[in-house]
């Protein structure tokens, strides 16, 4: 589950919609941090890093954004443009974010507090690390969640 799109259950009717995110229910980890990105310029690129240990769930609660994702097997593009779509990002996923709509609000839930030392910001370093032995160990850890 290094990269997975999930459909979030909507509750609602003519009066509006509601989505609940609950730890270890529809969010498959303990939620230790929530942050959100907004007021982005359309031509900016964000991200350009991977995390050694962090798991995250991203939801474009408003607007849209494109993710370029690479778990070492080659890049894929994922567009988030629906508040009922979640994007699960496991550890060791290189991500780049761009094509933010003017109104985009991207909310991210994470299983760790902010820790700069968890970042890999050099793509060549990332490729070296995913080619090593860390990746299979993580897959075992994820399955145990
Ligand atoms: P960064 O992770 O580099 O954002 P992006 O990958 O979207 O470009 O974070 C931008 C700044 O915000 C940086 O100075 C670190 C800070 N920050 C926090 O203080 N706490 C957080 O939880 C996050 C994600 C970032």
UniProtKB/TrEMBL annotation:
<protein>
    <submittedName>
        <fullName>Sugar 3,4-ketoisomerase</fullName>
    </submittedName>
</protein>
<dbReference type="Pfam" id="PF05523">
    <property type="entry name" value="FdtA"/>
</dbReference>
<dbReference type="InterPro" id="IPR014710">
    <property type="entry name" value="RmlC-like_jellyroll"/>
</dbReference>
<dbReference type="InterPro" id="IPR008894">
    <property type="entry name" value="QdtA_cupin_dom"/>
</dbReference>
<dbReference type="InterPro" id="IPR011051">
    <property type="entry name" value="RmlC_Cupin_sf"/>
</dbReference>
<feature type="domain" description="Sugar 3,4-ketoisomerase QdtA cupin">
    <location>
        <begin position="2"/>
        <end position="130"/>
    </location>
</feature>
